[in-house]
Amino acid sequence: MVPLTHYLILSATLFSIGVLGVLVRRNAIVVFMCIEIMLNAVNITLIAFDRYLNQHDGQIFSFMVICVAGAEVSVGLAIVIALFRNKPTVNLDELNLMKW
Amino acid sequence: MSFVNLAFLVPLFPLIGSIINGFFGLKIGKDRVSWVACAGPVLSFVVTLILLVSIFFHPEGTPYPEQSLFTWISAGDFVVDFGLQIDPLSLVMMMVVTGVGSIIHIYSIGYMYKEYSYYRYFAYLNLFLFSMLLLVMGNNFLVMFIGWEGVGLCSYFLIGYYFEKKSACDAGVKAFIVNRIGDFAFLLAIFGIFKMFGTLDFSTVMAAAPTTLIYDSEAATLITLALFIGATGKSAQIPLYTWLPDAMEGPTPVSALIHAATMVTAGVYMVVRCSALFNMAPLTMMIIALVGGGTALFAATIGTCQYDIKRVLAYSTISQIGYMFLACGVGAYTAAIFHLVTHAFFKACLFLGAGSIIHGMNNEQDIRKMGGLKDHFPITYVTFVISTIAIAGIFPFSGFFSKDEILYHALMDGNVIYWGMGISGAFITAFYMFRLVFMTFHGPSHVDPQVHPHESPMAMTLPLIILAFLALIGGLLGIPLFHGWHLLHNFLAPVLAFDLETALHASERMLAEHGHHTSFAEVLHQAQRTSHNIWLEITLMLFSIGVALAGIATAWFFYIKKPELPGKLSKGQWGFDLVQNKYYIDELIDEALVKPIVKGSDLLWRQADARGVDGVVNGVAQTISLFSKIARSFQSGFVRNYAMFMVVGFIILLILI
């Protein structure tokens, strides 16, 4: 059986990759993907602990996270499309109209 | 109905005139401005006449009527009514102010008609009359003080009437600032009076003065001295006289009304009004007599060397007011008021005559460029000479009676020094006034050939004739020889009544309560000793006529007989230079007072204000701005930067835990 530590290391690695992507990348779509990676890293942790502690709350939590992530992606992508219609770019550094 | 209820109308008429002319003057046209402007003082004069008649029916021994218009200030014990009072003293002043004021308003129509801002002139002049009437009619110190400040303000407006001229503006500012010094002392005196008496009403204060103040005490001396410093500012006495000669920058009728007949005599009126206080302070009385006599002599000497016709008259005014203060200083208040009245007549006439000449000579004021004008200005010449004889003090012109009464009292109630200052002043007065007449009207003509001298219109000559007539007969008010026949003395007696004996006994009692046993018997004895000596008076009169004639003869010798002599004698004489340059007093004040103040202010401005205060204020702003700059750099506007801060912060938090 694969021990808990492996799962947690995998999750932490994925999360760090996500954070790094959010911070470094300029493409809005990629940033979204990175956020999804971070959410799913959390899901892995939740499921891992679920199995390890033999309780089933974690599965329910992870379902909720998946729902929220789906809703978020749909709204976020809608915003990105709306932005793209106004300004033909998805580069976050150029989307600074609201900046004072 | 009592006629006294009409009193409020007297200052109201000029105020209405001032408001109409001030706000609508440009719209209603010059003719209507003239009507409005002259209606104010003339109507006031009529009301004053009614009041004057009604006062003769005033039952003797009862207090004189006062009209309280409204309660002005009420704060605890401190209650001041906006009240007017009608008593012989204020009536005499009201007669002079409204009478001479009306005449000068009519004259101004002719003199100022070519001016563009004609309405502005009359608005100020009417406002001046309003303030002056408040000053003389107020029944307490505070109402008087409003008038006192009001006339100072109007004086400033009218001196600076030709405001496009730098010298006129400077003269206005100078008059205002010098007056302010006196006003400050006057205010201090008002505070002192309130502290001592608990009220500011004239009638209450004067009635309580003999029993509240201690004879010759510090309080009495300080209060009266502060009052007198106030008077020196307004009445142009040493040391605050320097503004009056410069005030001649204003239009000539203004010089006649404000700087000769009325405003500058306000100080004399104030001293006479507060005579009960001054009687309690012999030290102040001595200072007043010395300052008055000194000014009379000092200003007269400067008058002998001036070449500007109006400046000669200005120094003459200072000198004559000096006589009035000399009279106040020896306790001869009636004589002071008497001279105030006659001086108002003859000096107003002299100034208006000078105005008539200036008007007919295209604004030429230098008497060296005149001469031989008597054929060109027949009416002005006759009226000018009448007033000059009056001021020189030749029988039976008005100035003779009033000046002689002062000189007589200076000797009898004062001492030989006062009299000596007065009589030598009289000699110089006769000399410089006739010098003025001779240089202006007689001798060969020095008139610029491009100027065509011409007599002035009716509106200007008629006032001259009226004033010359008054200067001629004004002396009838007080014929001093026959005691008891002195009209003015009898009229003013109830206001000036003062019982020295009661006052001295009260002072002795008050001092005894404090354990000091002083006897004023000697003072009382001294006061009762003097009596009326008719033969001495006649001798003095003959002597002073002789002195005046000698002054005239000297002037005649120097300026008619040998006109080249003054130039020869004065050449290279340091004494002459000294007098010609007004004893360098203006320069002295400039060096000793004005320049250090300007330098000090400059230092304060550059160092304390620009560096100190502004430095602190700017420093605070700069510090805040520095911190904002740092704080602003966090807000780059890039979402990823914020996210990084979040992550970094979270990592730090994790490490800490």
In short:
The complex is a heterodimer of chains A (100) and B (657). Chain A has helices at residues 4-24, 28-53, 57-86. Chain A is mainly α.
Structure description:
- The complex is a heterodimer of chains A (100) and B (657).
- The N and C termini of chain A lie far apart (56 Å).
- The mean pLDDT of chain A is 88.
- Chain A has one domain (4-86): Helix Hairpins (Orthogonal Bundle), CATH 1.10.287.
- Chain A contains 3 helices and no strands.
- Chain A is an all-alpha fold and 100 residues long.
- Chain B has 657 residues and is mainly alpha-helical.
- Helix content of chain B is 74%, strand content 3%.
- Chain B has 27 helices and 2 strands.
- A two-stranded antiparallel sheet of chain B has the order 1-2.
- The radius of gyration of chain B is 30 Å and the shape is globular.
- The mean pLDDT of chain B is 87.
- At the A-B interface, helix 1 of A face helix 27 of B.
User: What is the residue-averaged pLDDT of chain B?
Assistant: 87
Main sheet specs of chain B:
2 strands, antiparallel
Shape of chain B: globular
Helical coverage of chain B, percent range: over 70%
Radius of gyration of chain A (CA) equals: 17 Å
Cα-atom Rg of chain B, whole angstroms?
Answer: 30 Å
User: Low-confidence stretches of chain A at least 5 residues in length (pLDDT < 50)?
Assistant: none
Q: Helical region count of chain B? A: 27
List the helices and strands and how they pair.
The complex is a heterodimer of chains A (100) and B (657).
Chain A: H1 4-24, H2 28-53, H3 57-86
Helix pairs in contact in A: 1-2, 2-3
Chain B: H1 9-28, H2 30-56, E1 66-75, E2 78-85, H3 88-112, H4 118-137, H5 141-159, H6 166-197, H7 202-212, H8 218-234, H9 243-246, H10 252-261, H11 266-273, H12 275-278, H13 282-303, H14 309-329, H15 333-360, H16 378-392, H17 398-414, H18 416-441, H19 458-473, H20 487-496, H21 500-513, H22 521-529, H23 534-561, H24 565-570, H25 574-580, H26 585-634, H27 639-656
Antiparallel strand pairs in B: 1-2
Helix pairs in contact in B: 1-2, 1-4, 2-3, 2-4, 3-4, 3-10, 3-15, 3-19, 4-5, 5-6, 5-10, 6-8, 7-21, 8-11, 8-13, 10-15, 13-14, 13-18, 14-15, 14-17, 14-18, 15-16, 15-17, 15-19, 15-20, 16-18, 16-19, 17-18, 17-23, 18-23
